[in-house]
Amino acid sequence: MLEEPVLDLDDIQGNILPGFKKDSQHFLFLQIVDPEPARLWLKSLAPRLWTAREVLAAHSMWKAMRLKLGHEPDNLDFLFLNCAISAQGLKKLGVPDIEKFDDKAFKRGLEERSSSLGDPPRGSGEPGSPETWIFGAGSRRPDVLLILATDNLDWAVRVEEELITSAQQQGLQRIHVDRGRVRPGTLAGHEHFGFKDGISHPAIRGRKSIAPDDFIESRTLPEDSAFDDIYRSRFAAPGRPLVWPGHFLFGYLRQKSDEPESSRPNSEPSGPAWAVNGSFLVYRRLSQDVQRFRTFLAEASETLGQNGFDSDLTPERLGALLVGRWASGWPVMRDPNLDRGEQELGENYFTFTEATTVSLPNDPYPLNLPDPNGLICPFAAHIRKVNPRDDATDIGPKERTFQKLLLRRGITFGPEIEDKPQAERGLLFVAFQTSIVDQFEFLMNDWVNDANKPHANNGGVDPIISAARNTKISLVNGTNKFDLQIPGGWVMATGGEYMFAPGIRFFSNVL
Ligand code: HEM
What we know:
With 511 residues, the chain is an alpha+beta fold. It has a domain at 286-408 and 425-495. It has helices spanning 35-45, 52-69, 87-92, 104-108, 110-113, 153-169, 229-234, 290-306, 315-323, 382-386, 440-448, 505-510, and strands at residues 24-32, 80-86, 144-150, 172-181, 203-204, 235-237, 240-243, 255-256, 259-263, 279-288, 407-408, 411-413, 426-433, 471-477, 480-486, 491-501. Helix 8 (290-306) packs across helix 9 (315-323). The two termini are 39 Å apart. The mean pLDDT is 96. The structure holds protoporphyrin IX containing FE (HEM). The site of protoporphyrin IX containing FE has 27 residues, from strand 10, helix 10, strand 13 and helix 11.
């Protein structure tokens, strides 16, 4: 096992690591109209951008305060700011060596790549095709993205206005603003279909300092020797895989083929020298048709019930089978019949092919049984599609899946359907990685949108996020297999771009 590298936390932007985790996040998309003043303006932002180390410190302070008070602090707030630039934006700014990135998806941009993500083709005029997007296509492709995050909505609005005014005075123009906001009350952290999100995240390997165990992601596996050496060397916490930083950050090593515990020499992602400590940012503005999804669950659960799948099938349980988790986040693998409610302990501790055998201390609930045939959690379930965990897949043994993982940083947008039924709502999907082709696009093209992958059994496309219409997925109950028709179309792209979030020194040194 190799020693994990010290990551340059004073250069890496804080939304890559550890993530902003704030209730309001505003995404300001700008276009460069006059490169020289725009370059100077972007350069002047450098001292305002939050580093990974600063965001880590801010989170620790907030947690300490919560502990002292016994509730969330009312008066401790931060306003984080980060910045990313598209390939088109880098070109306009005259930044050198862009062609050294070998990721063709980044260089071409989201609009050109969108049909390979399953969006209706450009020119078709169908909802979800680039010409219907609010921004991100044609003359509305952004060059610059500013991300503002805070728990204080008024503060975010004030700073958003200040930044746009000063940008517009210095060679940039506003293209679009998305205001993300967590849902109110007990729905906080749940996406608009109702399911808790943001539970499963890979843990980046790496240290904060040269001290041997000063890890960025704490290792919280129980001391218990039942977690054998292999599990301990591959997971930071139950169900939370350790991934080499080169899959998320330029300038660091990636995994050695099928050995997650080792890095491969000279495997840094290829890009310009100035890309070190940066990461590709995928932004997809996804609209969710909540009413359509709910109606589908109600009708389909009734039909399946009548056809002998399970006479007690509720819309809630059908939804859980499609996501792979109950609304509370509790994994279907750990209880296919009952939502055990929201609880952090054990909510990410499960496998698919094999059974789990070691219980976590104080975790009273049943562990998961083996499910190599998709009887408990359908192969098409969203979380089994995008992270098949211990399933062998079309790309090989389970160890290869570690290299496909993303750092997700999205947030919901739009009002509650009960408050404003006609308004738009959805997910501002944000993910960091070092290969858009091998990570985000791979997941979308090869697994989400292919009925026969990652499991070669015609299990169906991802019923939550695939844009495909009128497909079918397989559900199994006992020995009976049921085909469920999925009309689809409840998640639709309405904008976005592929960007690059450079190290903070890029702003002062390269620009
Ligand atoms: C509106 C669209 C989407 C909805 C409603 C949605 C919903 C969810 C939910 C409820 C979870 C479970 C919570 C968790 O494990 O963190 C999840 C996990 C996940 N989603 Fe999505 N998602 C959406 C879009 C996407 C997209 C576009 C991708 C890109 C490939 C994606 C990738 C993932 C990944 C990687 C996980 C974690 C799986 C795991 O490690 O177990 N999601 N999503």
